[in-house]
Amino acid sequence: AMRPLLPLLLLLGTAALAQPRDVSPAGAQCLEHECFAVFWASRPFSGASEGCERGGGHLMTVRSTVAEEAIALLLQNREGRLWLGLSLSPSLSCTEPSQRLRGFRWVTGDRSTDHTNWAPSSGQRCGERCVTVSRELRWEERRCEEPADGFLCQYSYGGSCPRLAAPHGVLVTYATPFGARGAEFLALPPRSVAFIPDLGLELRCEDGDGAGPRWGRDTPGAWPCELAGGGCAGTCGEESGRPRCSCPEGALLGADGRGCRSPCEGAQCQHHCVVADGSFVCMCAIGYRLAPDGVSCEDIDDCASEPGPCEQKCVNTQGGFECRCHGGYRMVDGHCEPLPPCWEVPCQHRCEELAHGYRCACHPGYAVDPLDATRCRLHCNATECPALCDASGACECPEGFVLDGEDLCVDMDECDSGHCELNCTNTPGSFQCHCPPGYLLRDFIYCDRILDGEGEGAFSGDTEPGPHTPVPSWPPPSPERLHPGVLVGIAAGALLSLLALLALGLHLARKRCRSHGSMDYKYSGPQEKELGLQPVPSAQKP
Q1: Is the pTM above the cut of 0.70?
Q2: CB neighbours of 445 closer than 8 A, spacing ≥ 6?
Q3: In this predicted model, what pLDDT tens digit does every residue of 83-103 receive, in sequence order?
Q4: Number of domains in the chain
Q5: Signal peptide location in the record (predicted)?
Q6: Closest alpha carbon to 107 in 61, 47, 45, 166
Q7: Residue 253, strand partner residues
Q8: 407 with 357, same domain?
Q9: pLDDT by residue (tens digit) across 191-244?
């Protein structure tokens, strides 16, 4: 019945022998945040890595000369090769001798280093490769599955406890969480234990509450003051023959009888806590006052004070206030000042400030639009002006001009089209109608005869009275009703009109024949029309 169990027992025994036994480090060195340990146990790279991880660390990374000096202290000139935390990157099948780490990377997954110490190499090597170090501190490549004489481990911590200051002749030994033991440690990582048999004490390095690790024990109160000051955060003294800790003025003794805490620790003050006479008082930030419960803070309405803190408008905010200005004012260096006339005006081009306001002005080549004083339109005060063309080649001319050629605007003579009833004068981009003496201009175009007997103060010529509505007198009365002097005037006027038409025809013929460059300008260049110019109504245009 026992025979079937023999193969199983043999298999379990073989598996137990194959598992690497936990070994204690032969030596260790600890700094403030790191400990290094050496293990003399023949294992392949994977087994060495598992041994370090079992103690909460990893195979050692040697990124600086400080780590290399720690290796020298740990080896103590002993022969043998030890695994470091360097292995060939999984993405590479062969080493890269030209690179600083030769294609290897640390077990932490990175390649950063300030130090290397490679032994001379015979060239590129392929396969699974790892790195060992010896007492000469030289780094050598090695097949990962081959066992080395030992390995080096590294443990990192957030802080450490200092070596305990003990009286002469009192022995203190330490045990670290990764298995190292000894009496020569200068710093101990958290969870280390200190043994002081002469005083019957066993202390632990405990993580402090924000103040870093410190030595402590389960029993509250101070231990003998000659050993590290009794563990007191303040001062250690004796009271009735027993050690006792005391704290500085304003601080209270902690629950463990060794630490010191502020009276404000655990206070529920919303803003600030101030220590006073061994107790605490809650205080509030500027703009708040302490609520009746003594711990909360409530906002003060600064705008309700008299006089108010602002020149014009005050808006209360949590813990403060904001000063604002009425419409037509703006804030300048904490004061409300009237807005300048041109502040946020709707002028299309430019704004000019006047003594009691502003006016809109235009860039050269433009004039203020008579129908909208804030807008500008193209303007030319000569018979010819360059056209305004965009990138696509489309050109635009001012009103009253036509495009002649590709980029020249030529004045259009509206008088040729009979816009006026009697006399007409062409102007750049527009025209003006006139009436002879004895006639009144109506609607800027028509001429109404002034009736006899209207008396002194009757209007004539180009003037158009506001309230007077004359009786139309076109066509003129029959000749038998006219005075002989009037007939002579009419005949002279007809003759002058005929001469004017002949001269206009000659002028237009010359304008069509001559080149663009030889045409006469009515002025020397573009001129801006100001807002005060008398506009010509659109009714005069064709």
Answers
A1: no
A2: 419, 420, 421, 433, 539, 540
A3: 999 999 877 888 888 889 999
A4: 4
A5: 1-20
A6: 61
A7: 260
A8: no
A9: 999 999 999 999 999 987 667 899 999 999 999 999 999 999 999 999 988 999
